[in-house]
Amino acid sequence: MYDEEGRRYLDFFAGAGALNYGHNHPDLRQPLMDYLESGAVVHALDMQTPAKRSFLEKFDELILKPRGLDYRVQFPGPAGANAVEAALKLARKVTGREHIISFTNAFHGMTLGALAVTGNSMKRGGAGVPLSYSTPAPYDDYFDGETPDFLWLERVLSDSGSGVEHPAAVIVETVQGEGGLNAGRASWLRELSDLCDRHEMLLIVDDVQAGCGRTGTFFSFEDAGIVPDIVCLSKSLSGYGLPMAITLLKPELDIWEPGEHNGTFRGYNPAFVTATAALERFWSDDVLAKEVVVKAQQIGDGLTDIVEGRPDAQVRGRGLLVGIAFDDAGASEKVATAAFERGLLVETSGPEGEVVKLMPALTTDPDDLRQGLEILDDAVTTVVGSVAGERA
């Protein structure tokens, strides 16, 4: 990216995960330009259009069928929070129950339903009203790393005197992007899925930020071998930064009445065009997925080198959704500022903003990854000092 004076910046922020394929990718831009020049319909509410049909066909052909997934596709509105609201609403309708289990440090959006299952106190405080019908449970490794997983949750769900109502669903992020880059282990996710089965709760995976290839597979839960009941997708779904979201649901859950959950911007056709182009360009084979694995190793090794000898800093995350957590929460903001001054765009995350978060585009050149890591290394050294005099 370049500012008005022509100064160059490496973008390791990627629109908070909305630009997994980078800015203005030519293979996505040209189909969009052709569509707009053709005079085809741009806004059609949620009615049928050729652009919508093409997206649905490609999504089924390239994403769902190869993974053995049988989902209905709902268009809930243009943003990730819309996908989450639809998921929560449907889970309650299907089960006839009201309560939702969420997790510590979760983030699911800024609308009231999504905020009710969000952990961050500052964001919750912005609601201005009580946020109810949800209970937070400890996320993976929330305690000492030795406490048996789901001990608390299993106990309260089995105890009629716990005061926790039988939930309709559990909503989880496999990597907590805004919550500090906590990454749930595959074994933990599998046990969570089993827990939901045992207690007849729906499992909702919020893949808004970790999905669309950011962890190396299209869905972030694939490595765990689980099949959620409902999946929320947005951000990089359109591939071009255009607003688009979908809620995936198992066919037996599709009990919506016509018009029961609707909205004006559920069918943004330019986003369908770029989403289809992105699927064809990046997901018709496994080339990108393999590249992400290699780049994730590169950036993981680079971050490990940066924190080596710094007991007050740890690497967090998974895939190309990674960063450095500092014991001193104020250090991360200073590191992000120092990185910006040196031409690198990053953000912070975590309940205290204690994590410097990296989300480079999946298509980032390895040389640019290397350069970005060098800038970050210099920024960290400037803010927290060198390691035993080795980095001046």
Structure description:
With 392 residues, this protein is α/β, with parallel strands linked by helices. It has 2 domains: 257 residues, Aspartate Aminotransferase, domain 2; 99 residues, Alpha-Beta Complex (Aspartate Aminotransferase, domain 1), CATH 3.90.1150.10. The chain contains 12 helices and 15 strands. The strands form 4 sheets. The chain has a 7-stranded mixed sheet. Strands 11-12-15-14 form a 4-stranded antiparallel sheet. β11 and β12 form a beta hairpin. The chain is globular. It starts with 9 loop residues before the first strand and ends in an 8-residue tail after the last helix.
In short:
The chain has helices at residues 14-17, 26-38, 50-64, 80-95, 112-116, 121-125, 151-158, 186-198, 269-282, 287-307, 329-341, 366-384; strands at residues 10-11, 72-74, 100-103, 134-137, 169-172, 175-176, 182-183, 202-206, 230-233, 246-249, 313-318, 321-326, 344-345, 347-349, 355-358. The protein has 392 residues and is α/β, with parallel strands linked by helices. Helix 2 packs antiparallel against helix 9, helix 10 runs parallel beside helix 12 and helix 11 packs across helix 12 (366-384).
